[in-house]
Predict the structure.
Amino acid sequence: MAGTGSEGSSAETTYGLIAQLPVVIESYSLEPLVRAFSPAFTRYTTLVRLHGAGEDGLGEDVTPFEPAQHAFASSAAELPLSGFWTIESFAACLDEVELYDGPQLPPGFPKTFRRWALESAALDLALRQASLPFAEALKRECRPVTFVNSLSLGERGIEAVNQRLARVPSLRFKLDPAPEWSDGLMEQLAATGRVDIIDLKGLYPPQAPVALAPDPDLYRRLATAFPDVWLEDPGLNTATREVLQPHFGRITWDLPVCTPEDIDQLPIPPRAINIKPARHGTLRRLLDVYDHCAQHRIPTYGGGMGELAVGREQIQYLASLFHPDAPNDVAPVDYNDHELRGNLPPSPLRVEPAPKGFRIGASST
């Protein structure tokens, strides 16, 4: 079933390098994944496995709602995925498929997460059927990936950082601030010299658990205490814009960017763009955003969405190809545990592509 997709020509683009890869899908299966990162937080995702021509292609649905994950993993409904496709025609097919059956998501929540799981699995399968690694398909080389540990301090304060530095002295951080952060805590954190990004989370709706209400006083204190770090996703109003105006050169964006057109509409020109494939949803949008940023010389860095398995390895793979030296929020999954355990690889992370597919060596089978 050949097709052209619904978003224009892919000629002479990065997406064009993979758009016409053939892929045979005979069936699929779903595997629920679960991991307790702390006593207060358990993460649920779903491994998507597409079967065809003696190969399996893997993707991971990271939709951040437990009921949606349970409903997907236990669904008896069959998605119409079987057929002879290209990457592009498979994407066109998914345009017509309802991937969230029933009231699984809050009103208005984007449906990109499951779409990414299916498209990344199809790409993995197509590459495995072609005996081709992703890096070779894109004519790029993997490089070691610099990563940061994304962290919410909670009641632990500076100890949360110090305990991790005791385990991995070279570790660097992307931190989620809180309204109760004191000037003293900010000074302690800044004194470590290990903070690369402050994620202001100012664009989430107020009901989102991670939302941080825009606060001009907090923004001022953070910008002053951390004079060199990137400030991601500020919530802008008259007061916060005035406070941040001297720091516009440090503003990066994540939540509002799904397409290249979104970048052109940002209220402050980006210092860099946080690339999260599950937020873009499709391979075309993801790779078109990379092309747009390269054309306009906008730096990019990778972001995680709580992946538990192959999804995390795939964002590490992308980081190794497109922005290996950036402060990538793609640390190995073990870094998301409340208490760090075991042997933890330091940054930079060596990424070895599997001999075929959209996987790194750790998931080559």
